[in-house]
Automatic annotation (TrEMBL):
Belongs to the ABC transporter superfamily. Macrolide exporter (TC 3.A.1.122) family. This is ABC transporter ATP-binding protein. SUPFAM superfamilies: P-loop containing nucleoside triphosphate hydrolases. GO terms for cellular component: plasma membrane; transmembrane transporter complex. Residues 12-239 form the ABC transporter domain. It comes from Metallibacterium scheffleri. GO terms for molecular function: ATP binding; ATP hydrolysis activity; transmembrane transporter activity. InterPro entries: AAA+_ATPase (IPR003593), ABC_transporter-like_ATP-bd (IPR003439), ABC_transporter-like_CS (IPR017871), ABC_transpr_LolD-like (IPR015854), MacB-like_ATP-bd (IPR017911), P-loop_NTPase (IPR027417).
């Protein structure tokens, strides 16, 4: 099967990807023969019904899981061949994660939550604070830096999570239902912010969503059904 392609300069190249889980002696295939290219600078929406394998595919792209078959090359690095420790180092250096339920530490301020990924770097404490402050300013929350998650709305918490995801200047942002727990107004703010990171800052984004309105903010979308790609399209953007 030919790979679904979204551009010529590929950041992500996936070939014959398969993932099977085992429950006792039973094999449960989740992905089968997935082939996909994602160009650098794409905002890519991955859609499909519940159980279609889209979150599994996202986890494989983000290095949170390893495939049962096939290959994943990101930025020239074949990540499916990395050891567990090497994969963890690659993830920390190259991928920012945004999840549906924010995953912020409730006892830390917004500033400290954004700083967390920087603790794995060699940056000084003052440089970490500076970078986190810049990230919070970009997401429009500079005035909320000292607030803890419980003092923020859901949309504000997700914007903090996005600031945390890109504070290390990752190659790739992976977003799993980033608006799934938000009302429509807050969702539009978050999606507009992701568009800004894509268009103004050149971030490649892969986003899982079940919401067609969310997918319309992407540059490309692809559909998964029962573990197989069944269609891809460029999303028409307003002038």
């Amino acid at each position: 099967m030919n790979a679904v392609q979204t551009g010529s300069a590929n950041l992500i190249e996936i070939r014959d990807l398969g993932k099977t889980y085992r429950r006792g002696k039973q094999a449960i295939p989740v992905l089968q023969g997935v082939n996909l290219d994602v160009a650098a600078g794409d905002f890519f929406a991955l859609m499909g019904p519940s159980g279609s394998g889209k979150t599994t595919l996202l986890n494989l792209i983000g290095g949170l899981d390893t495939p049962s078959a096939g290959s994943i090359v990101i930025g020239g690095q074949r990540i499916d061949k990395l050891s567990g420790a090497a994969l963890a180092r690659w993830r920390a250096a190259h991928v920012g994660f945004v999840f549906q339920f924010y995953n912020l530490l409730p006892m830390l301020s917004a500033q400290k939550n954004v700083e967390l990924p920087l603790l794995l770097t060699k940056l000084s404490a003052s440089e970490r604070r500076k970078r986190a402050a810049i990230a919070l300013q970009l997401v429009g929350l500079a005035d909320r830096a000292s607030h803890k998650p419980g003092e923020l709305s859901g949309g504000q918490q997700q914007r903090v999570a996005i600031a945390r995801a890109f504070v290390t200047d990752p190659t790739l942002l992976v977003c799993d239902e980033p608006t799934g727990d938000l009302d429509r107004a807050a969702a539009e703010e978050v999606l507009g912010l992701l568009q800004q990171l894509n268009r103004a800052h050149g971030k490649t984004i892969v986003m899982v969503t079940h919401d067609p309105r969310a997918a319309e903010h992407a540059t490309h979308m692809v559909h998964l059904d029962k573990g197989e790609l069944v269609g891809a399209a460029r999303v028409a953007q307003p002038a």
